[in-house]
Design brief:
The protein is α/β, with parallel strands linked by helices and about 240 residues long. It has a single domain (about 15-240), classed as Aldolase class I (TIM Barrel, Alpha-Beta Barrel), CATH 3.20.20. It has 10 helices and 8 strands. It has helices at about 20, 40-55, 65-75, 100-110, 130-140, 150-160, 185-195, 205-215, 225-230, 230-240, and strands at about 25-30, 60, 85, 115, 145, 165, 200, 220-225. Strands 1-2-3-4-5-6-7-8 form an 8-stranded parallel beta barrel, surrounded by 6 helices. Helix 2 crosses helix 3 (about 65-75), helix 4 (about 100-110) packs parallel to helix 5 (about 130-140) and helix 5 crosses helix 6. Pfam families: NanE (PF04131). Converts N-acetylmannosamine-6-phosphate (ManNAc-6-P) to N-acetylglucosamine-6-phosphate (GlcNAc-6-P).
């Protein structure tokens, strides 16, 4: 991992480079699952605004309506932190921004960075990851983050032309065990082998774990559940008291 911004950022707009703005900081993932009390774009926008007030350098948001609401609110408030957008469609296999159509829609909704499934699994539209990235570049100026599950995923995503890789899908694709906390072993592998920003994401449940991930070389750390999902957080406390 070098100290310079990756060459894939050259010439991107807006300035400063969105990924450079994330370096060394906390990205808060503001998501609620279908059917939950907080599953409303207005609620997620308020959560995102609160996270920025707390010092988040970036926000990760799921769904077209949520992305539109958050980016509109940020523009009105003069907030310039990058918004990473994704579109979950389905629940199995490749479902994080699974097709080029999804990726273009996420970018057009206002996302600064588009997060897509960066695994080597077949994509629903039959396109390769490289073709998806190339197609997205034809339609938008958004950067591309590949949510990966293994080192081989990340290497393939790098070759496909993405701007950043994340450990997001570690433990969910069958290639690696699901660790209790962040997959620090995979993080170390990516930092050593991938000359792109490596984002630590997945099961970061405490400030100490976030710090450890950053010290291990992560470009930035994404935290979702432990900050923005009160149902799960409440369950942690209930379980502790019940025990």
């Amino acid at each position: 991992m070098t100290d310079r911004p990756p060459t894939s950022l050259a010439g991107t707009d807006p300035s400063p480079d969105p990924l450079v703005a994330l370096r060394g900081g906390l990205v808060v993932s503001c998501q609620a699952y279908p059917g939950e009390a907080m599953r409303d774009p207005r609620t997620m926008t308020q959560v995102a605004l609160a996270a920025v007030e707390g010092g988040a350098v970036g926000i990760r948001v799921q769904g077209i309506e949520d992305i539109e609401h958050v980016t509109r609110a940020f523009a009105e408030a003069g907030i310039t932190v990058p918004v990473t957008g994704l579109w979950k469609d389905g629940a199995d296999g490749v479902f994080i921004t699974p097709t080029l159509r999804h990726a273009v829609a996420v970018a057009r909704a206002g996302a600064t960075i588009v997060a897509i499934d960066g695994t080597r699994r077949p994509r629903p539209d039959g396109l390769s990851l490289a073709a998806t990235v190339a197609g997205l570049r034809e339609h938008t100026s958004a950067l591309v983050m590949a949510d990966c599950g293994s080192l081989d995923d990340a290497l393939a995503a790098r070759d496909a032309g993405v701007d950043a890789v994340g450990t997001t899908l570690s433990g969910y694709t069958g290639e690696r065990p699901r660790t209790q906390g962040p997959d620090l072993e995979l993080l170390a592998q990516l930092v050593e082998r991938i000359d792109l920003p490596v984002i630590a994401e997945g099961r970061v449940h405490s400030p100490a774990q976030a710090r450890t991930a950053l010290d291990a070389g992560a470009w930035a750390v994404v935290v979702g559940t432990a900050i923005t999902h009160p149902t799960t957080i409440t369950g942690w406390f209930v379980d502790a008291l019940s025990a």
